[in-house]
UniProtKB/TrEMBL annotation:
It comes from the Eukaryota. Belongs to the type-B carboxylesterase/lipase family. It is an enzyme of class 3 (hydrolase). One of its GO terms (molecular function) is hydrolase activity. PROSITE patterns: CARBOXYLESTERASE_B_1. Residues 19-499 form the Carboxylesterase type B domain. Its EC number is 3.1.1.-. The keyword rRNA processing does not apply. The keyword Hydrolase applies. This is Carboxylic ester hydrolase. It comes from Talaromyces marneffei PM1. Keywords: Hydrolase.
């Protein structure tokens, strides 16, 4: 299997209750049905509804559906992998972007196969299910060849201002339409998608009682959000990759209101006008998306869920991490070695004095110095060494500690954990030499096989096989509770189960435990969020730099 596959023809499938879908057929009889609409939208900033009809009872699934609008500046960035010849980048369409792509094995009639539904990342701000890196044809073909066929789904959801804006005006508008809560539109979209899967996936050979959701970065955060939702959608197993519930905070309505008013002010709409929301809806999707980074005050921005009193069963927070609910049959958490490199552009702005000052705002001087000393960050370090140690601090506080605590507190028998330590050896990779945030996507989807060494290919197949086995309800490796065990992918293209005591020299769990024991972890997390995403610059008239410079010098 080398690179992407080209379709060998077309195929058609009858979907109960909807009609006929046409798709692409590939080697081994694997079929792909793209751009399937799962949700309906009547306007911006409202809840989506379940799509239960197709015009004329037919859907052309040979083409990708629209993407959700992304921040304008982000569209200049290349994708993780190039576009596919048979799937060029689609348009952005805010009201028609709720689509999903399904890949199924051959001869699925009457079968009940596990379903692996992927939720993409992008900081709740960007990205989409149509990215070629997430194409599941190779992964499905692999599942067939190893005798564990499965159905694969990628789903779009609203991101950025279209998916996560919240305010009192939006809350009132939702109430007039009969909805409780506010914001969280992208999270509610994901729920609608999973309800669509539950209702229609059997026509594609999938078992609605064997749905595993998995996601990377904001997709992993999404998985955690769905686990703790007051009304969770139907799924049975979950994997969160490089992102946990509190990696991106859920904001209070007051915090969202500040953001909303900053957006209106930037667009020269009176924030106090009674029709401010209606005025905002008259602006084009491109104008709204184009305001995202300027209003946020940084190019390293996020969308943020809302503590709306409706979505969550309990208030999220690091101190509130608890066992997943008993209805979840399997739970897996994972991270990569160099998670925080995604914030490197933000870190470049920090001196020792500015870093200490920002930590002190949230922690006070004594606790700020305690954290800095734990990570060996002091005034005499070179800029490069301080940079590396700040990356370690942020990787722990933003990502790794959450997975560790979540695994420790899980009462589910099928709880598993992994670390991805394999560093990039790709010659054309600007992050060569790092096990960077999202590098695991080059492995799990099997779409970079021509770039891997023979040993790297074996690692990719092993990881993909582990995820598929987990979807089947199997134990892919030693359970976490058996000796506090983690699967370690890499660093030498090997899969090795290690205990936390064995891995302490690499992972430094005891260092994270000291911050937790001191009772300051949540405040340290808030400080790290401020340092990484520059929240304090929101609405200050930030001028977005030329992002082409980032591509020339990404680190």
């Amino acid at each position: 299997m080398s690179g992407f596959q080209n379709p060998t023809g077309k195929t058609r499938l009858a979907v109960d209750g909807l009609g006929t879908v046409e798709g692409l057929e590939f080697a081994q009889g694997v079929c792909q049905f793209s751009g399937i609409p799962y949700g309906t939208l009547s306007k911006r900033w409202t809840r989506s509804g379940l799509q239960t009809t197709w015009p004329s009872g037919f859907h052309d699934g040979t083409k990708l559906g629209p993407n959700a609008p992304n921040p304008t500046e982000y569209n200049s960035f290349p994708g993780i992998l190039p576009d596919l010849p048979h799937h060029p980048t689609p348009i952005e369409d805010e009201l028609n972007c709720l689509v999903l792509n399904i890949v199924s094995p051959p001869n699925t009639a009457g079968q009940k196969l596990p379903v692996l539904a992927f939720i993409h990342g992008g900081s709740f701000l960007s990205g989409g299910a149509n990215m070629s890196a997430y194409d599941c044809v190779n992964l499905c073909s692999f599942s067939v060849s190893r005798g564990t066929p499965a159905v694969f789904v990628n789903l779009n959801y609203r991101v950025g201002l279209g998916g996560f804006l919240a305010s009192r005006a939006i809350k009132a508008d939702l109430e007039r339409d009969g909805y409780e809560g506010c914001g969280n539109f992208g999270l509610y979209d994901q729920q609608i998608a999973l309800h669509w899967i539950n209702r229609y996936i059997s026509s594609f050979g999938g078992d609605p009682e064997q749905v595993m959701i998995f996601g990377e970065s904001a997709g992993g955060i999404s998985v955690c959000n769905q686990i703790v939702a007051k009304d969770p959608p139907p799924f049975q197993r979950a994997i969160t990759m490089s992102g946990h519930l509190n990696t991106i905070f859920a904001w209070s309505l007051e915090q969202h209101e500040k953001h909303y008013r900053a957006l209106l002010t930037h667009l020269k709409i009176d924030p106090d006008a009674s029709d401010s929301l209606e005025q905002l809806r008259t602006r084009s999707q491109d104008e709204v998306a184009g305001a995202t980074l300027t209003v946020a005050g940084t190019v390293i921005a996020t969308g943020n869920p809302c503590l709306d009193g409706n979505f969550y069963a309990d208030t999220p927070g690091f101190d509130n991490i608890t066992t997943p609910p008993s209805w979840l049959k399997g739970y897996m958490v994972g991270d990569v070695m160099h998670e925080a490199m995604i914030f490197d552009q933000s870190f470049k702005e920090e001196t020792f004095d500015s870093l200490r000052a920002r930590l002190t705002i949230h922690l006070g001087e004594e606790d700020a110095d305690f954290v800095l000393n734990l990570y060996g960050i002091h005034k005499d370090l070179s800029d490069d060494e301080r940079f590396v140690r700040l990356e370690e601090l942020v990787s722990d506080i933003y990502f790794k500690a959450h997975n560790w605590v979540a695994a420790r507190r899980s009462n589910l028998p099928q709880t598993f954990a992994y670390h991805f330590d394999q560093r990039s050896a790709f010659e054309d990779d600007p992050f060569k030499g790092l096990a960077y945030h999202a590098i695991d996507l080059h492995y799990i989807f099997l779409n970079s096989m021509e770039r891997h060494t023979p040993e790297g290919k074996k690692l990719a197949y092993a990881m993909a096989g582990h995820f598929i086995d987990f979807a089947y309800g199997k134990d892919p490796w030693t359970k976490y509770a058996d000796g506090y065990s983690w699967m370690r992918y890499g660093p030498d293209n090997k899969c090795t189960v290690v205990t936390e005591s064995e891995d302490e020299p690499v992972r430094h769990f005891s260092r994270m435990q000291k911050i937790i024991d001191k009772g300051i972890f949540q405040r340290a997390l808030e400080a790290v969020d401020d340092i990484s995403t520059k929240r304090y610059r929101m609405g200050t008239g930030y001028k977005v730099p030329d992002l082409s410079l980032f591509m020339e010098n990404p680190c």
